Amino acid sequence: MFNQFQGRMLLSHNFDVNPDTVPALSREEFAQVFQSGLSAYKHLQCRLVNHPHWTVEILFPTNEFSPQQVGELCAKALAEKRRSQQLSTDPIPEILVLGGIKTTPPTSDSPDALQPGNWGVDVVETSSGEAFLQAIAWDATIAQKPADSVFKVELKKA
Q: Is the predicted pLDDT of residue 95 greater than 60, yes or no?
């Protein structure tokens, strides 16, 4: 299926907006956003995972896509879905895709758990990306990490 240059990314969803702007998504609906939104890219494989924190697994060939590029495609897929679901004239939420590579031992032997070398990615919908990043101390969190072990994608309100 894939060669040894396969990347694995697990997505979680952080919905930090008023549900009157866009509806909350179930785990299945969240997974469907990426299964549909990334379907044009035949080498990206998405599936719903059975895990309390992680929702979606994306497998990607690292010789074709960087983790940052996959994150950008995820942000665009979610933004497109949200534009189609807008419940008011308010702008769609800001979208953050925050990724980091796991370097510590796994916390579970579940095949759907994050493993060393995998990318754990938080997909955030928020009214203020800047306030969210400050609240989680993003800059301090990544300050000591190698640049190639984290990524951030931001889609601001249009």
A: yes
